[in-house]
Amino acid sequence: MFSDIGALELVTLVVLAVLIFGPDKLPKMIQDVSRFVRKIREFSDSAKADIRSELGPEFKDFEFEDLNPKNFIRKQLAENEDLKELNELRSSFDLKKEMNEVADAVHGRETAPAAPAAVNGSATPDLLKKQDKPDAGERPPYDSDAT
């Protein structure tokens, strides 16, 4: 409970307690505080036991520490095997590389081809490359789906 209090802080608290309550009242105050803490712990333990008994046998492994969101998420991540498969899938998919390829295709830059460009001696046109601008008198092609 007080694991983060150092020796200097503990000595300071003892000196303050002696100064505030006096040496003759200090033992009585320590007994009262310890009795109060003991009653609070008993009350808390009985409340937890009542809640567990009311929840039934399907919640026999229920821990109140799991109600803390950080503990709940940590426990779920540790027990979930599907996340391991998801991480493997995530590592196999390189989103940055895919986005760079799409950006290069949109801007008309050449990228390293994943497959050969010519099959059976005929080259397939790259539809994502910028096409030459039409002449001044020539109208652009009409696309009825775009309007």
Automatic annotation (TrEMBL):
Its main location: membrane. It is found in: Cell membrane; Membrane. One of its GO terms (cellular component) is TAT protein transport complex. Residues 104-147 are annotated as: Disordered. Keywords: Cell membrane, Membrane, Protein transport, Translocation, Transmembrane, Transmembrane helix, Transport. GO terms for molecular function: protein transmembrane transporter activity. GO terms for biological process: protein transport by the Tat complex. The Tat system comprises two distinct complexes: a TatABC complex, containing multiple copies of TatA, TatB and TatC subunits, and a separate TatA complex, containing only TatA subunits. Substrates initially bind to the TatABC complex, which probably triggers association of the separate TatA complex to form the active translocon. Belongs to the TatB family. This is Sec-independent protein translocase protein TatB. It comes from Streptomyces showdoensis.
